[in-house]
Design brief:
Strand order of the largest sheet: 1-4-3-2
Largest sheet: 4 strands, mixed
Shape: globular
Distance between the termini: 25 Å
Structural class: alpha/beta
CATH topology: 2,3-Dihydroxybiphenyl 1,2-Dioxygenase, domain 1
CATH architecture: Roll
Radius of gyration: 14 Å
CATH superfamily: 2,3-Dihydroxybiphenyl 1,2-Dioxygenase, domain 1
Order of helices and strands: EHEEEEHEEE
Number of helices: 2
Number of domains: 1
CATH class: Alpha Beta
Helix content: 10-25%
Length: 124
């Protein structure tokens, strides 16, 4: 069965700030894709057949906040490192790292630079 999540968009109010936040905590480089009409996507790196997604900006359509969908991003190989980076950026950890189960690993929930609740999941 294919992955249930095929694409995700995290709403942002400040694309530059949000891109810096996600590049910093995950140690990645993201690609900006201006769509036009004030719509911009900032793409997370992905390989073929992986779930792909982006930070999404449009002043009249995307509204960050903690009441929207809760998505889980892969925090392997080290959730602890990512959580340290979250606090270094000045953002909050809403739910500290805790074990879901031995089979599923660990989870945590953070508040990103735009005010979105984002969950993290890792094996350790």
């Amino acid at each position: 069965m294919a992955d249930r999540i095929v694409w995700f968009e995290i709403p942002v109010a400040d694309p530059d700030r949000a891109q810096r936040f996600y590049e910093t905590i995950f140690g990645i480089s993201m690609q900006r894709l201006p769509i036009g009409n004030e719509f911009t996507l900032i793409l997370f790196p992905a390989q073929p057949n992986e779930v792909q997604g982006a930070l999404a900006y449009h002043p009249d359509f995307y509204f960050p906040g903690n009441q929207g969908p809760l998505i889980y991003l892969n925090a392997d190989p080290s959730m602890d490192l990512i959580l340290d980076r979250v606090t270094q950026t000045g953002c909050d950890i809403l739910i500290p790292k805790r074990q879901i189960s031995e089979e599923r690993g660990f989870m945590a929930v953070i508040l990103d630079s735009e005010g979105n609740r984002i969950a993290l999941m890792s094996k350790n």
